[in-house]
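Lab notebook page, bench 4
Experiment: in silico fold of construct C2
Operator: M.H.
Input chain length: 403 residues
Purpose: comparison with the prior construct
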Amino acid sequence: MKESPRKFALDASFTESYRSRKTAFGFNGLGEIAYRRSYSRLKDDGSNEEWFETVERVVNGCFNMQRSHLQDIGKVFDHDNAQRLAQKMYAKIFDFKFLPPGRGLWAMGTRLTEDKHLYAALNNCGFVSTQGHISDNFALPFAFLMDLSMLGVGVGFDTKGAGSVTIKRPDEAKKRVVVIEDSREGWVHSVKELLGSYFVGTGEIAFDYSLIRPEGILLKGFGGISSGPAPLIELHKGIINTLNNNLDKPITSRSIVDLMNMIGKCIVAGNIRRAAEIAFGDADDEEFLNLKNYSLNPERASYGWTSNNSIFANLGMDYSKACQSIKHNGEPGFCWLENMRAFGRLCEPANHKDHRASGGNPCLEQTLESFEMCCLVETFPYNHDSYEAVSYTHLTLPTICSV
């Protein structure tokens, strides 16, 4: 058996046989609305995918990633066996026995993964801590959140870097112009440069937005419609105002959350891109507890909605202040990091396998280390008639994790 460099593709006659099959979208049509809104991509002919085409793209993308990985490690990819497995996998996704991650439904098998190899776009969520990083490389946690958010990945972050660096005025004598490239990387780089100018002594920055495509242009890579430079201009102004108002002071938990939230608002403004954030603060940080008290902080109402806010709760602590806040606006949530680090399942003895965990994803069902990402598949046991059907869910996650 010889290894073949050719790309994997499901047999055309196989996928064509599903064209006329009825799709069992659930919830009295709501499932189909969610699919067409969030996962049906625009095709080259200007029409949107139908479900049988989305599943084909996803399965082809999954097996092409396996093929590339095996070739990278010097192993043989068996096209015949892959075709057999892929057809079974296709059938189980089509019939909603399981689904790959939502990010996978959107990005798998597209130019993002096939050509640009941006496999991070296949992950649901991630987390970054500001502790340590913010003093060594101030812009890094913010750039991480912005970069992943622009790929559709939800990101959690903490405020443990508060107080670790002092905000400085950029050097006006070294003023320079930064031309922003018309790309995800260009937008992220502009924010890194701007943040860096307040912390590493570089010159004041003036931005040139002329290369950014205007509003309303089709985005062929990620998908959606271009927003033009306006959201980025607003973000830059927000960052400048936030930092100028805190010059010569240590960065606060509020400033950290403000910057992250403004980034989230910028990403949401970018049409098909969505941002999901969760901010983690200390239980005794009153400033953090009041972030969503818009009577005290009315200026935050325009961007504070971009994150869920939770506190790192301590076992046996006094919950009174937090509960007063919950009474008024439903937040903060509680995150017991000690338990997250100690237990896999609370019904089992402590194993401390996650002792390096620092936080979690925006839904907080996944414990994460700093700069770690997570991915999931969804299985529907009531649609299964055997364990064999469930086993095909495992073809997706190891594939994503391999890259």
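Observations: The CA atoms of residues 3 and 74 lie 9 Å apart. The longest helix spans residues 51-72.
Next step: discuss at group meeting.
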